[in-house]
Amino acid sequence: MAEVTPPRSTATVVDQLRIRPPRHRLDRRFILWRTLQALFWGIGVLGVLGTIYWWAEVTRPWLGPLLIIGGVIYAVNIAIMPTWRYHVHRWEAGDDAVYALEGWLTKKWQIVPISRIQSIDTEIGLIQQALGLATIKVTTASTEGKITIEGIDVEVAEKTVEHLKDVTAATRGDAT
């Protein structure tokens, strides 16, 4: 007679999926990618405001201080944010769940059980493509159930997506 194993209780699954620091760091090129993103945004926003300041004399009394404040904010954003995020962000894709830790001013811990995954997407933008990086997006049915892992080497991302695809296909559950 075949041995029947009792179903795992919800408490057992929850006990196994405790919030903990995920094991993997992002690729070091993440810092350059985020720096370039912040630089391009800063140039765009401050460029538009600077053009308005230059052409519309009536805006100068209030737009001048706004440009200075915006310039300082973007300078701090470019100088500090990418490295800080690199040191905080972690990720892990195991056989039971996908874990992510991200943040800059606040930290956000996320765990998505494999049985809840509905889709796994890879995104590679222009700057990421030039740097050999990718973003993995893991989505569930919940509006809060999306994990985005940015700044991963393209080959690592491909292997991770393949692993998640295999594990998800072999996992029983209705992904709801």
Helical/strand content category: alpha+beta
What is the radius of gyration? 21 Å
Task: Detail the poorly predicted runs.
Answer: 1-7
Helix content: 40-55%
Q: Please name the CATH architecture of the largest domain.
A: Roll
> How many strands, what sense, and barrel or not for the largest sheet?
4 strands, antiparallel
* Assembly annotation: single chain
Number of helices: 6
What is the number of beta strands?
A: 7
As laid out across the biggest beta sheet, the strand order is 1-2-3-4
Q: CATH homologous superfamily of the largest domain - what is it?
A: Pleckstrin-homology domain (PH domain)/Phosphotyrosine-binding domain (PTB)
CATH fold field value of the largest domain: PH-domain like
Helix-strand string: HEHHHEEEEHEEH
Structure explained in plain terms:
The protein has 176 residues and is α+β, with helices and mostly antiparallel strands. The protein is built from six helices and seven strands. It has helices spanning 10-16, 29-55, 60-79, 81-88, 126-131, 154-170; strands at residues 24-25, 90-93, 97-103, 107-113, 119-123, 133-139, 147-153. The protein has a four-stranded antiparallel beta sheet with strand order 1-2-3-4. A hairpin with a 7-residue loop joins strand 6 (133-139) and strand 7 (147-153). It is elongated. The model is unreliable at 1-7 (pLDDT under 50).
Name the features.
elongated; 6 helices; 7 strands; 48% helix; 176 residues
What would a concise description of this structure say?
This protein has 176 residues and is α+β, with helices and mostly antiparallel strands. The chain folds into two domains: 34-82; 91-176, Roll (PH-domain like).
